[in-house]
Amino acid sequence: MFITFEGIDGSGKSTQARRLAEALRAEGRDVVLTREPGGSPGAEEIRRLLVEGDPERWSAETEILLFTAARRDHLEKTILPALHAGQIVISDRFADSTRVYQGAARGELRRLVDRLHDEMIGREPDLTFLIDMEPAEALERGLARNSGEDRFEDMGAGFQALLREGFLSLAAEYPARFRVIDGARSPEAVAAEVKRIAESALR
Ligand code: ADP
Ligand code: TYD
Question: Does the beta carbon of 12 lie inside 6 Å of ligand 1?
């Protein structure tokens, strides 16, 4: 089973991915927790090129190639071996982030994103949690971390609002695997709903 978390920056994806991994491990399940961009040594190197520096550093097209290169390495080295070994893979972001960040919010590049995905990745998650919330609140949470990885946060609140809309339309496009979760609640309340849905999918 391949589970992903998606949503705008600061919505609580990492927190929820970690909590779900811990909850499933506590029940004796074998879980690999990973993230994008990154999740394998090569992809983590590419990550630094993407999340640090000037917001204008790359065009949307170049970004699509870099994210897809990182994802291909992540898939080959981490995701597919784990799935073949029967482990549950939980990834903090995956291809839906490229569809929204590069494919919708920065120009009409969705077709290009989908073509590259079909050729180079060709795998969708079984279950995707969209942690949905108000961009202003999420941005405040995200920037408060002072991570030094704020290239996309630095594109501003208007950009985050476009991203939110993009994720919600994607959820409507793939209703079979998407679950939209209200992220503007306590981490415990969000985690309880996520766990309930994941367990019912695993059964
Ligand atoms: P993301 O991975 O979506 O960027 P994080 O899980 O890293 O989000 O959360 C961003 C920040 O907000 C972190 O400092 C985290 O501790 C905090 N946070 C996460 N979930 C919640 C929540 N439900 N309520 C308040 N703060 C939260
Ligand atoms: P992430 O570490 O998940 O950031 P955050 O914790 O702020 O949500 O991801 C880093 C940034 O990369 C994030 O701003 C979203 C962006 N991104 C894309 O633009 N396209 C992609 O395909 C992926 C996976 C991430």
Answer: yes
